[in-house]
């Protein structure tokens, strides 16, 4: 079992170690700052011929210019890219055509309108889910309209639907018996 004095000595040693790390970190930061300041002062003195005591205004202007350039570059980085030029589009189309011929094989070069065929297949496969959901939507809406009309105008529509249904049924029966 540790005694209270042993725990206090251990805690004091840990405190000394952690404070030593903090002191070293602060010293390293101070050395880095002094080195950067020295490099800045020497650079300004060599570029503009201004002695170290009078460099504050030049440093301030340089920092402003640096911030402005960084803002412009950041704006360019997040800006929406412009449309591709005609030459870029032609290069992309040629690359796409050659890729399609490379996949389809050498006999595809002899086929007329091969590019059109590939484009129709690609667009068709991309639009298949849209067309399927649109057709389903049309069927659903037409069913809802019919149900709504049956509910609101059921008696009135029954008069008109009755003979037609009988006529359709007899026509279907007659066509099934005739050769």
Summarize the model shown:
The protein is mostly helical. The protein has two domains: 1-73, no CATH class; 106-173.
Topology:
Blueprint (H helix, E strand, L loop, with lengths): L3 H45 L7 H23 L7 H19 L9 H64 L2
Overview of the structural elements:
The chain has about 180 residues and is an all-alpha fold. It folds into two domains: about 1-75, no CATH class; about 105-175. Helix content is about 85%, strand content about 0%. The chain is built from four helices and no strands. The relative contact order is 0.02. The mean pLDDT is about 80.
Radius of gyration: 42 Å
Biggest sheet features: none
As residue ranges, the low-confidence spans are none
The proportion of residues forming helix, as a percent range, comes to over 70%
Strand content: under 5%
| General shape | elongated
**Quaternary organization:** single chain
What is the total number of structural domains? 2
Q: How many helix segments?
A: 4
Topology as H/E string?
HHHH
């Amino acid at each position: 079992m540790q005694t209270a004095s042993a725990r206090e000595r251990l805690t004091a040693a840990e405190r000394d170690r952690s404070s030593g790390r903090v002191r070293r970190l602060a010293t390293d930061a101070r050395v880095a700052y002094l080195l950067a300041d020295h490099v800045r002062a020497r650079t300004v003195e060599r570029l503009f011929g201004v002695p170290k005591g009078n460099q504050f205004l030049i440093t301030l202007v340089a920092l402003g210019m640096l911030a402005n350039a960084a803002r412009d570059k950041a704006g360019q980085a997040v800006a929406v890219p412009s449309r591709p030029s005609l030459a870029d589009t032609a290069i992309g189309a040629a690359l796409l055509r050659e890729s399609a011929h490379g996949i389809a094989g050498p006999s595809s070069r002899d086929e007329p309108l091969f590019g059109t065929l590939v484009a129709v297949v690609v667009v068709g496969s991309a639009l298949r889910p849209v067309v399927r959901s649109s057709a389903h939507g049309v069927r659903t809406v037409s069913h809802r309209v019919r149900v709504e009309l049956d509910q609101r105008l059921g008696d009135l529509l029954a008069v008109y639907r009755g003979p037609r249904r009988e006529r359709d049924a007899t026509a279907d029966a007659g066509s099934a018996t005739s050769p």
